[in-house]
Amino acid sequence: MPLIVQKFGGTSVATPEKIQAAARKAIRAQQEGNQVVVVVSAMGHETDHLIDLAKQVNGEPPAREMDMLLSTGEQVSVALMAMAIHGFGYRAISLTGAQMGIKTDSSYTKARIKTISTDRIRRLLDQGNIVIAAGFQGVDEDFNITTLGRGGSDTTAVALAAVLNADACEIYTDVDGVYTTDPRLLPEARQMGLISYDEMLELASLGASVMHNRSIEFAKKFDVPIRVRSSFSDAPGSMIVSIPESPTVPVCGAALTRDEARVTVQGVPDTPGMSYEIFKRLADRKITVDMIVQNIGMEDRADISFTIPSDELKETFRAVQEAVDVTGATGLHHDDAVAKVSVVGLGMADQTGVAERMFAALAAAGINIQMITTSEIKISCLVQRSQATTALRSVHQAFSLHTKPTDANQWLIGQMSHTKQSPSEVVERLRSTNLEQLTLLDISLLGDQARVTLSGVPDTPGLAEKVFQEVASAGIFVDMIIQSCDGYQGETSISFTIPKEQMDACMEVLGKTGYRFRKIGGSNDISKLSVSGIGLRSHTSVAIAMFKALADEGINVLMINTSELRVNVVTEGKDGERGLKALQKTFADALV
Ligand code: ADP
Ligand code: ASP
Ligand code: MG
After folding, report:
1. Are residues 156 and 303 in the same domain?
2. Which is deepest, 86, 226, 261, 327, by most CB within 10 Å?
3. Which atom of ligand 1 is nearest to the CA of 177?
4. Among 174, 199, 227, which residue terminates a domain?
5. Is 253 inside a domain boundary?
6. pLDDT tens digits along 83-112
7. What is the CA(203)–ligand 3 centre distance, in A?
8. CA of 178 relative to ligand 1 center, distance in Å
9. Could you read off the pLDDT of 18-34 as tens digits, one per residue?
10. Is the CB of residue 216 less than 8 Å from the CB of residue 143?
11. SS3 content of the chain, % helix, strand, coil (to 5)
C-alpha cells in the first residue's frame, strides 16, 4: 500500500477547528488507499510562548531544560490530532520522538538525527492506524529529550519519509507553496511550480523559512520529492525535486536574513592556522557562520570578518575573545544592525554578469553594500537592516522574479508516484548509517586561476557595480567575489578570482577605470580547492576541518567561500596539490 507523510505546521493546527480540518485531510488520504503518517508542529505560536516563559525565569536557560520544555508543544498537538481523528471515527495513535525511536546527538536545541527505528510505526500503520508523529524532537543516547532547531518539524517529516521510503511527502503550511521570495515581505513574489533541492536548500539556509534547511538535506540525500501546499485549500502547491523550474534563468529566488550580525577580528597575524583558531571555537558551539571574508593582509596582519545570526552574538563573542587572546589579534569589532540579501539559482553557475546585475540593482536603490560573498549558486550582500526590504525588492525586480520563466518545467500532478523507484544502492547505504552525518560528493583542485585584489576602495553605493560591469564588458569571467567590510574606516577591499589567462586583460581594464584605489594587486598563481556535498554550511565542521587540514600542512588560506553545496578555499598556486592530498585524507570517510 502506498505510504504518505503529511506535515502540518503551527498555523495549520493553531485552533481546535484547524486541528479537525487537518485530521480530515489525513483521513481523506487514508481513504484514498494510503498508509498515513502525520507530523505535527506545536499549535500556533506555542513554541515562542514557551521560549518567552523560559526567559522570564532565567535569561540564559540551560539548553537541556529548554528542550525538555519546547518538546511539550508538539506533545500537546499530537495528542489533540489523534483525538480529533478518533472523534471522526477513525483509528490514530500519537507518538513522541522517543516513542518513534528518533535518536539524535546531544546538541540540545539543534540536535541532528542519527537513527530512526521504523518498526513500531510500520506495525501501527499495518494495524490500520494513522500515526501522528511529534515534530522537531528526539532523544539522545541517554534518553534526554532533544529538539532539532526552530522549524525542525519539516526535518522530522522528510526524515520519516526517507526512512519509510514514502511515496509522497506533503508539507501543509499557511502559504500555497514555495515563492520566489517570502510573499509576506513582497506581495509581488510569485509561486513557483517547482524548485530544485539545491536551490531550496540554499534559499532555506539564507532565510526562506518556508522549509527547514535540514529537511532539504534529507530530501536531496534520500531522493524524497516534497510537495509544499496550503492547509487551507486544495491547490496543488509547489514541488521540491531534483530539477530546477527553468533550465536557463540565472536566479530563481531571493531571500533575506534580517537578523544577521557582522563580527570583525582585526589585526590577525597572517600566518597559517589563524582562521582555524577562530572558527573552530564557533563550530564547537555549533554556531553557523556565513560570509567569511578575509582582507588580504597589510604588514602581515589581516582582518577577518564573518556574519552569524544576531541571537548568537553573545556566544560568538565568548568564542572569539578566546581566539583573540590565543592569536594575538589586535581587536574585535561588530555591527548587529545588518541584514543579508541573497539571490540563488543553479543557472548562475555558467552565466556571466549575474553578480553585477545584483550590485546594479542595489546601487540604483541607493543601498550601500557592506560585504559581498559569492559562490556557485548564490550571491549574498550585507546591507543596513533598515534597508533590508528595499534591497530585497530591488533584486527581486532586477531578476524579474515575478515573471514566470517562458521555459518553465512542468511537474505533473501524480508524477511523483509514477516515478517512484526503488532506492538506489547509495541511498540504501546512507539510510543504514547515521542519517544526518556529513555526506561529501567530491574534493577537487582547480588550477590556472588568478586573484585580483583592490584595496582602499571608496565605500560608496555603486562601486562594486561599476567595477564588475567594466570587468564583465571586457569578457572576463569572474568567479569568487568577496568584499570586506572595513566600512567603518570609509574604505573596503574587493577580491575576486578569474582565469589566469585573463589576468593581463583584467589589469588593463582596472587601470583604465579611473577609480583611485589605494592598490591594485593580486596573484597570477593561485589554486582553488573545493569540497562539495550536501548541507555543508550547516555542517559547521566542514570549513573547520579544511582550515585544520591546510594549517597542519603550513598552507595559508587566502580566500574562502561557503555554500550548502560547496566550500571553496583559495591558496597560493604552489600549495594546490599538497592541499588536495591533505583534504582527501581528512575527508576520506565522508565521501560517498
Ligand atoms: P509552518 O508553521 O507551517 O511551518 P512557517 O511559518 O515555518 O510555517 O513557514 C511558512 C512561512 O514561510 C510563510 O508564511 C512565509 O511567510 C514564509 N516564507 C519565507 N520565504 C518563503 C518563500 N520563499 N516561499 C513561501 N513562503 C516563505
Ligand atoms: N514548533 C517548532 C517551532 O516553532 C518546530 C516547528 O514548528 O517546525 O520552531
Ligand atoms: Mg516551518
Report:
1. no
2. 226
3. 25
4. 174
5. no
6. 999 999 999 999 999 999 999 999 999 999
7. 14
8. 8
9. 999 999 999 999 999 99
10. no
11. 40, 30, 35
Host domain of residue 91: 3-174
Mutate to test the pocket of ligand 1, among 210, 245, 251, 343 (most ligand atoms within 8 A of CB): 210
* pLDDT bracket for residue 113 (50, 70, 90): very high
Task: Copy the grid coordinates of residue 522.
Answer: 593580486
- 488 torsion bin: left (phi>0), alpha (psi -120 to 50), beta (else): alpha
In a domain, 189, yes or no: no
pLDDT for 366-418, tens place per residue? 999 999 999 889 999 999 999 999 999 999 999 999 999 999 987 765 555 44
Overall residue count recorded for the chain in this entry = 592
Atom of ligand 2 nearest to the CA of 74: 1
pLDDT per residue as tens digits for the range 260-313: 999 999 899 888 888 889 999 998 888 889 998 887 666 678 888 999 999 999
Pairwise CA distance, residues 205 & 201, whole Å: 6
Domain boundary among 149, 174, 199: 174
Pocket test for ligand 2, best of 8, 136, 147, 155 (most atoms within 8 A of CB): 136
Nearest listed ligand to the Cα of residue 187: 1
Residue 261 to residue 268: CA distance in whole angstroms: 20
